[in-house]
Structure to design on (298 residues):
């Protein structure tokens, strides 16, 4: 197993419960039609909480038939490309997470490696997750210089996604206005996804107006997430995606335990209830939307 990506180091508040309770939740009732978990970090759980092959099999058993594996630093990106080549259920995304960019010794060399990996295999469908993270930047003490490097990295990832015709996957934490500013200045690629969407309905409309797909995670099931549910309610059916961000953001009633793709049905059923959608119709839309957002079937 490679060194854990910065995403895992940066998310201790999201995983602290997992140290107290590692019991694996029971598998939920399978979905009536297949869906895709469009954002997962199998490398972080592999060899720790659930092996990759088992995670894929558990997901398949509940009709989560495909997974987008996201690499957040150079070791994670290499792992994602290799895993996508080995497992037919996976495609990959590669990038420097915004909290990783200020840590690298040579941004030029790191971005050259990300570009090489992005073009290494036809199953590498995405450049991401990239973006801006004001919350973690403040926590790490890197301040204005850290944000400058984050923004430079974000712009370079946008350019890469456009040049290679890859889907752009955006991480946005406490940085809504700046994310849209950079997107407007650089121009959005043809396909882009707001990963783990965290805004309200007004911000959702701003992203949708610019052509984004919005991806909803287990956070939509949390009691304090009413603004997020409002955003979900106004998102057109043809722009809705679902994800785990596993092993993080486990949906209710298992919040605090490690997450995995087989728990996606809990989130999808909650989404259908919020939206008033027929469950089969929502599953079909999620599957179709994910193919469109990530450049076709696999």
């Amino acid at each position: 197993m490679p060194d854990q990506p910065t995403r895992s180091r940066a998310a201790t508040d999201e995983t602290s419960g997992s140290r107290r309770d590692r019991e694996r939740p029971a598998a939920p009732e399978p979905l009536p039609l297949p869906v895709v978990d469009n954002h997962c970090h199998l490398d972080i759980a592999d060899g720790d909480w659930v092996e990759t092959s088992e995670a894929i099999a558990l997901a398949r058993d509940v009709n989560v038939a495909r997974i987008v594996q996201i690499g957040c630093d150079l070791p994670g990106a290499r792992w994602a490309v290799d895993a996508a080549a080995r497992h037919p259920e996976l495609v990959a995304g590669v990038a420097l997470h915004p909290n990783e960019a200020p840590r690298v010794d040579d941004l030029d060399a790191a971005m050259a490696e990300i570009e090489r990996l992005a073009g290494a295999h036809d199953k590498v469908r995405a450049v991401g997750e990239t973006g801006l993270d004001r919350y973690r930047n403040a926590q790490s003490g890197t301040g204005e210089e850290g944000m400058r490097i984050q923004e430079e990295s974000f712009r370079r990832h946008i350019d890469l996604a456009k040049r290679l015709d890859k889907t752009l996957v955006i991480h946005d934490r406490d940085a809504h206005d700046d994310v849209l500013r950079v997107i407007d200045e650089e121009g959005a690629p043809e396909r882009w996804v707001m990963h783990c969407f965290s805004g309200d309905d007004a911000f959702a409309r701003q992203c949708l107006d610019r052509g984004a797909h919005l991806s909803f995670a287990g956070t939509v099931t949390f009691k304090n997430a009413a603004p997020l549910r409002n955003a979900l309610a106004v998102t057109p059916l043809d722009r809705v995606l679902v994800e785990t961000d596993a092993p993080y953001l486990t949906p209710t009633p298992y919040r605090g335990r490690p997450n995995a793709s087989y728990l996606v049905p809990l989130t999808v059923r909650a989404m259908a209830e919020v939206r008033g959608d027929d469950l089969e119709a929502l599953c079909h839309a999620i599957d179709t939307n994910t193919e469109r957002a990530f450049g076709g079937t696999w």
Remarks:
- Residues 28-293 form a domain with the TIM Barrel fold (CATH 3.20.20.140).
- The chain is about 45% helix and 15% strand.
- The first helix runs from residue 6 to 9.
- Residues 1-20 have pLDDT under 50 and may be disordered.
